[in-house]
Amino acid sequence: MKVGGDFFEDEQAQASFFASVATLKNQGHNVAIVHGGGAQLQAQLTALGFKSEKHEGLRISPDEQMPVVAGVLAGTLNKKMVCMAAQAGLTGVGISLADGNLAVCEEVAPMLGAVGYPHPRSAKLLHQLMHANLTPIICSIGSDLNGRLYNVNADQAATCISSLLYADLYLLSDVSGVLDEKKQLIAHLDDSKIQQLVNSGVITDGMIVKVKAAQEASRTLGKAVQIGSWNDVSILIDELHRNTGTTITSSGFLS
Ligand SMILES: Nc1ncnc2c1ncn2[C@@H]1O[C@H](COP(=O)(O)OP(=O)(O)O)[C@@H](O)[C@H]1O
Ligand SMILES: CC(=O)N[C@@H](CCC(=O)OP(=O)(O)O)C(=O)O
């Protein structure tokens, strides 16, 4: 499960999300959590006098800004997530994509600076943590084999983790799912419909990155991916595969 958007500003959502994760664990499901924090990172960069812009939903991240980027995402927010988990009775272990050889990053484009695309490497650490009844809480900071740190979009980080675990993927944000031009929830999207909605400007900004990450996960895993709200996560408990948001299926997906 991946949480992003205003999650860090909403204490009620945090409590109910982690309570739901605890219930899922008690029901015998293993859960790994990936988190974003773009809004909090933006606020910290601004407070420190850095200008920060996004290109097609990805934050341009000069290497000299990486201490702040990593400080917020892998530091403050990752540890806050571990504390929230503890309040729900879960023992979380906060890690990054760079830990345990989970992933190796590749620079996306020189003009974006240290923005990385994560290639999955080893699920060993995740399996060991979950086997020990610990909940992995993963931030979207990665590295390459030369030791350069990268800022990874958290939806892409979640896709990487789901493919390592062959796990069902839930991308949970502050919207109920993908919305149409009348702001109505779209129950199901496939490749051609996504392309159409992106071309017509109905899907924009961070949602473009999110649907593309969901498409990639659906293709790799051969199963549907959910885009929904962390507010609805408790509904998932009774029926894990119930769709409360938008279900994404991509070519190669076999039902
Ligand atoms: N068609 C759409 N449906 C829903 N949200 C959309 C759409 N197009 C753009 N958005 C925007 O995308 C945002 C979610 O993407 P993003 O902010 O990157 O989420 P997160 O931080 O959870 O990854 C929504 O809050 C909304 O402002
Ligand atoms: C490269 C890139 O764009 N990285 C993201 C990482 C955080 C993120 O994705 O947070 P949300 O899920 O809350 O949006 C960023 O800097 O905002």
From TrEMBL:
UniProtKB keywords: Amino-acid biosynthesis, Arginine biosynthesis, ATP-binding, Cytoplasm, Kinase, Nucleotide-binding, Transferase
Protein's name according to its UniProt entry: Acetylglutamate kinase
Main localization category: cytoplasm
CC terms in the record's Gene Ontology section: cytoplasm
Family membership noted in the UniProt record: Belongs to the acetylglutamate kinase family. ArgB subfamily.
Site feature location: Transition state stabilizer: K2, K210
Positions bound to substrate: G37, G38, R59, N151
Species of origin: Brumicola pallidula DSM 14239 = ACAM 615
Listed Pfam families: AA_kinase
Task performed by this protein: Catalyzes the ATP-dependent phosphorylation of N-acetyl-L-glutamate.
Localisation: Cytoplasm
Lineage: Bacteria, Pseudomonadati, Pseudomonadota, Gammaproteobacteria, Alteromonadales
Signal sequence residues: none
